[in-house]
Amino acid sequence: MEILKTVDGEIQRIDEIVADSWINLCKPTQKEISKLSEELNVERDFLTAALDEEETSRIETEDGQTLIIIDIPYVNENDGLIIYETLPIAVILLEKNIITVCLKENHITKDFADSKIKNVYTNMKTRFLLQVLYRVATKYLLHLRQIDRRSAAVEKELHKSMKNKELIQLLDLEKSLVFFSTSLKANEVTVEKILKGRFVKLYEDDKDLLEDVLIEIKQAIEMSTIYSNILSGTMDAFASIISNNLNIVMKVLTSITIIMAIPTMISGFFGMNMEPGTMPFHNFWVVFLISAGISGIAALVLYLKKLL
Q1: Which of 210, 258, 267, 281 is the residue whose CA sits 20 to 30 A from 17?
Q2: What is the pTM of this model?
Q3: Where residue 38 sits, what CATH number does that domain have?
Q4: pLDDT in tens, 228-238
Q5: What is the Rg, in whole angstroms, of the alpha carbon atoms belonging to the chain?
Q6: Residues 39 and 149 reside in one and the same domain
Q7: Residue 307's pLDDT band (boundaries 50, 70, 90)?
C-alpha cells in the first residue's frame, strides 16, 4: 500500500492518509484491507472486488462511495513468449479520497505514481478517474499495435519454416485479441454509464474528456476486431498450407514406392525356385535392363502426371 498526493503540481508519496490523497493498493494483504476499511469506512467488498481475476467491468455506488472496475491490458512473459492478457482494476471514489486496487503491479497506476502523466490532481477525484480511463484506452491501442507488429514478424518466420513454435505464438496472439475485445466492450458499457452522470458527478470539461475516452475505446474495439479477423484468416491459410505440403510429400513418397516396387516384383519372379533355363530372360543383365526400363517408364509417366 502506498499513499500519494498532489503537492505543488506533482504526485508525491506521503506517510499518512490525509484528505485529498490517493491510496494505491497492489495485491494487498487481508490486514491492509481490514485496516483501510476501518480507517476510511470503506465497503470491504469494494476493496476485494478487483482481487478476482475473473471480475468484469462494472460500476456501482453505495453510501456515497462509488466503485468502478475496468479491465486493463497486462503483458505476461512465459517461456520467452509474450502473452497479452487483461486484469481488473478498481477505482473507488470516496468523499475525500481515491483508492485504486489491483491484483498485480501494472503500468497504469505506476505511470501515475511516477508522475509520468501530467496535470494529475488527487483532489479532483472525477478528473483523476477519467485520466485513468483515458490512459487505459491508450494502452490498449498501444498493445494492439504491438500485437499487429508481432503477428507480422511471426508470419515472416512461418514463410521460412513451418514450426509449431510460431503457430503457437499466433494462437496466443489470437487469444489475446479475444481477451482485449471482450474487456474493451465491457469497459465501453461502463464508460457509457459514467457518461450519463448518474453515478459520478461530471463537469463540462469532464464530459469532453470522457467522450474522448469513449472514442478511444471504440477505436480499440474496431482495431481488435480487424486484427482478430486478419489473424484468424492467417491461421486458416497456414493450416491449409501445412495440409497441402503434407499431401505433396505423401504423393511423392507414394510415387517413389511404386517405382521401387517394380524391380522388387521382377526380381521376385526370377528368384523363384525353378530349374535353370526354364525361365525366359534368365540372364542377369537382361533382367536388370528390363527392370530399369519399366521403372524408367513408370517414373516418366508419374512425372508427366505431376505426381513426382
Answers
A1: 210
A2: 0.76
A3: 3.30.460.20
A4: 888 888 777 77
A5: 34
A6: yes
A7: low
Judged on CB neighbours under 10 Å (0-12, 13-18, 19+), 271 is exposed
Exposure string for 157-187, b = 16+ CB within 10 A, e = fewer? ebeeeeeeebbebbebbbebbebbbebbbbb
The answer on 282 and 229 residing in a single domain is no
Find how far residue 147's CA is from the centre of its chain.
7
Return the sign of the alpha-carbon dihedral for residues 68, 105, 14, 8: negative
58-91 residue pLDDT tens? 998 888 889 999 999 988 877 767 788 899 999 9
The Cα 268–Cα 270 span in angstroms is 6
Q: 53 falls in which pLDDT band (50, 70, 90)?
A: confident
Same domain, 85 and 226: yes
For residue 103, report the phi and psi dihedrals to the nearest 5 degrees: -75, -25
Whole-angstrom Cα distance, residue 122 to residue 111?
14
CB 100 within 8 A of CB 90: yes
Burial status of residue 57 (CB atoms within 10 A of its CB: 0-12, 13-18, 19 or more)? buried
What's the CA dihedral at 231, 143, 171, 240 to 10 degrees? 20
Residue that has been written with the C-alpha cell 497504469 in this structure: 108
How many domains are there within the chain?
A: 2
Say whether both 148 and 195 belong to one domain: yes
Among residues 72, 35, 31, which one has the least CA distance to residue 50? 72
Residues 180 and 275 in one domain: no
Q: Are residues 125 and 260 in the same domain?
A: no
Strands laid side by side in the 98-102 sheet:
10-14, 2-7, 22-26, 98-102, 81-93, 65-78, 58-62
Judgement on whether residues 87 and 205 belong to the same structural domain of the protein: yes
Whether residues 88 and 26 fall in one domain: yes
pLDDT digits (tens, 9 = 90+) for 239-281: 777 777 778 778 888 877 877 777 777 666 666 555 655 555 5
